[in-house]
Amino acid sequence: MHANRAADVILLHLALKANLPHFLDHLRIKGIEFLFIIAIACADAVNKQPVISGSQLDRMPHVHHDHFIDSAPETNWHSCIEHAVKIGLGSDQYELIEI
Predict the structure, then answer these.
(1) Burial class (CB in 10 A: 0-12, 13-18, 19+), 25
(2) CA–CA separation, 39 and 31 (whole Å)
(3) Residue 16: CB partners within 8 Å, gap ≥ 6?
(4) pLDDT in tens, 22-46
(5) Which of 13, 16, 33, 93 has the most CB atoms within 10 Å of its CB?
(6) Model pTM greater than 0.85?
(7) DSSP letter (8 states) at residue 89
(8) Buried b vs exposed e over 54-63: b needs ≥16 C-beta within 10 Å?
């Protein structure tokens, strides 16, 4: 190994050691935001699907235009999203780009 490469490795190690906690905090925050928006997008995708004939949802009245609430009216999954937005875990707004 050349001396300049060894110095690069040592400097990189020192830089990472100094900045790794900040990087991990940033990554953790971005990861939470990513998972948060994925959960919302999945719920939106489920609600866009047709009701399966003979399913529990099919037997329930469709008054809310929300498969989750129509199949279990005592639940309010939106309150979890609202609370997560309120405490700063992310935004409930996203743009889905279909490929």
Answers:
(1) exposed
(2) 12
(3) 23
(4) 555 555 556 667 777 888 888 899 9
(5) 33
(6) no
(7) S
(8) eeebeebeee
